[in-house]
Structure formats: structure tokens, C-alpha cells
Design goal:
Blueprint (H helix, E strand, L loop, with lengths): L10 H33 L1 H14 L13
């Protein structure tokens, strides 16, 4: 990913950049997590079924691991 770097010339610019970077990290973590879940589902289809069943019966993200049964 190519980004244009802006020159930080004040404390306010620094805080704006800090917020932008935090948002970028949050987006990247969510993207990685989604990719890992997809890989897990491909390798073990029962993991995806149990996750969907858990979401159906208990609501989204009700369990720390996101799975109904642990392996």
C-alpha cells in the first residue's frame, strides 16, 4: 500500500496522524481476524458451523473464542 506522507508541523497534526494510524491498525486487525476465520473455516468446516450456531443461539461475539465448542 502506497501512502502519501504528510509533514507534521504542529501538535494538532501529530494528534490527527495518531488517530489515523490507530484507525488503520483497527481496520488491519479486523481484516486479519476475518482472514484467519476464513482459513479456519476452510480447514475445518465444523468450526464455521459451530461459530454460526453460537451466533444464532447466543448472539454475536458472546464467547471469547467466537466458537461454540473448543478444539
Amino acid at each position: 500500500m502506497t501512502e502519501i506522507k504528510t509533514k507534521i508541523s504542529s501538535y494538532e497534526d501529530l494528534m490527527v496522524e495518531k488517530d489515523r494510524l490507530r484507525a488503520s491498525i483497527k481496520y488491519s486487525k479486523a481484516n486479519i481476524s476475518g482472514s484467519i476465520d476464513g482459513i479456519k473455516d476452510e480447514l475445518n468446516p465444523f468450526t464455521g458451523i459451530s461459530r454460526k450456531a453460537g451466533e444464532l443461539f447466543f448472539g454475536r461475539n458472546s464467547q471469547p473464542s467466537g466458537e461454540l465448542w473448543s478444539n
